[in-house]
Amino acid sequence: MSDISTPLAVREIKSLSRTEGDTFTSVLLIKRLAERPTKTGNSFLAVELGDKTGSFTCNCFSDNLAFEFFKALKEGAIVRIEAKVDYYQNRLSPKLLRAEEITANQIADSALMANLVETAPEDVETLWAEFHGHIAAIAHVDLRATVQAVFDEIGEPFRNAAAAVAMHHAYRHGLLEHTCHMARAARALLPLYPEVDADLALAGILVHDTGKVIEYQGDLVTSRSRKGILQGHVVLGYQLVRKAGLKAKLNPDLLERLEHIVLSHQGELEWGAAIMAATPEAVFVAKIDDLDAKMGMVQKLLRQAGENDEFSDRHLGLNAMLLLTKPQK
């Protein structure tokens, strides 16, 4: 049995016995909250609770006292729960025994608060210095000025933003980490592809996701803003880049090619691209973006794996369960 007086992190909860019905307490964020219909016409709440080590979903049906409790709260609220370990379709889905809302002030500057907020595993100051080094590496003066103008406008929000709501690098400073990883990969691969203009490709990588600083909002939990829902980060990023390019007097051909990278970087129309990549640089950037997004998913699943886990849950972005154990050599 676990000691229910000591709040457990999600990773620790997932390590509890599946068969002994352990009870536990935990302090968690409400990450997602959705009301859905049952087959009989009633309602239930799908409540995703989590911290920086992982998350799980509890289903609260309308005849459960927790239904009204959670219905009155919003995503980003902090709750202390007492629950019993249970699994549904091989996924952790604890049975709630008690739940109460607590404020950020109640746990400010504590280990509990530090455990709630997931951040990039790399040091943010080091990443930020590296990022500015990538800008400086753009040899073309007007391209470099265009990129610099974008980050003169959005630098601090970009530094802190998540790269997604849930899919990849979905944590504080995740957008900065994702972009730096892409720039590292690009600079390693560019010598293999002399057909790709290095300055244009690197500039495109640095600005490709800038619209996400407008698309996303929130401190403890990331959600989409009104503009994010109505326009999306591809269009918002295009607007930022066009404004900066005109300010820097970037020539029309280079500006159009840079805008095209932003508009096509999602890779597929069904993934949110405005247009399919149609220049060497746009193809290059879209493929590196997809690579780092997928590897970001892999890295997070490995970081959040329990000691005894062999496979992760099925990941929507990977369309697979990930084998978590290291190769035997």
What does this structure look like?
The protein is elongated and about 65 Å long. Strands 3-2-1-4-7 form a 5-stranded antiparallel β-sheet. The protein has a two-stranded antiparallel ribbon with strand order 5-6. A two-stranded antiparallel sheet has the order 8-9. It is α+β, with helices and mostly antiparallel strands and 329 residues long. Helix 5 (141-160) packs across helix 10, helix 6 (174-189) packs across helix 12 and helix 7 (198-207) crosses helix 11 (252-264). The protein is built from 12 helices and 11 strands. It has 2 domains: 10-116, Nucleic acid-binding proteins (OB fold (Dihydrolipoamide Acetyltransferase, E2P)); 124-302, Orthogonal Bundle (Hypothetical protein af1432). It is 42% helix and 19% strand.
